[in-house]
Amino acid sequence: MALCLKQVFNKDKTFRPRKKFEPGTQRFELYKKAQASLKSGLDLKAVVQLPPGESINDWIAVHVVDFFNRINLIYGTMSEYCTERSCPIMSGGLKYEYRWQDDSKYKKPTKLSAPQYMCMLMDWIEMLINNEDIFPTRIGVPFPKQFQQVCTKILTRLFRVFVHVYIHHFDSIINMGAEAHVNTCYKHFYYFIREFSLIDHRELEPLVRMPQ
């Protein structure tokens, strides 16, 4: 799928620079293993399962970074269709509205346009995955106790990108010829978060029928 994504989407329009794994590290080897399984045509439900003998936190870390890169690429290519005028509210249809909150500028949930929300989201995730105290890359350095809790928050917010793109920009996906590739990326994401119970089921409601 990685090759297909590069063919369908314009990699120069990546919303944020790609986060790369350092060659020679355990995380890099896990990433290669995950990519090999993904390209082999295996059932996505099997692909997301933790390989025997591997650390669950390393496996989650690899996927969080990979999903950030993939969703970053999808939205970056589609961002010209998602503007302040077309999407003045970050939402998933009339029923779901997503407000932004962080620990710095936005102390309370704040209504933002979809482009503003996406900018805040990608900056926030990039800051977290580059933080060695949260996503350690050095051998022997343990993950923090709250690591999976942080990943749940990241993945929950990344899921909202899928919600917005599918509900508000599905015509653009079809026009780009990207429907199959976005669907595969979404299913991979969906099966992963379900495998490890990383997102509250209530967050999944806007796209509850998508995996089928």
Automatic annotation (TrEMBL):
MF terms (GO), sorted A to Z: kinase activity
InterPro entries referenced in this protein's UniProt entry, alphabetically: MOB_kinase_act_fam (IPR005301), MOB_kinase_act_sf (IPR036703)
Keywords per UniProt: Kinase, Metal-binding, Transferase, Zinc
Pfam families per record: Mob1_phocein
SUPFAM superfamilies the UniProt entry points to: Mob1/phocein
Chain sites annotated for binding Zn(2+): C82, C87, H164, H169
Protein name stated in the entry: MOB3C kinase
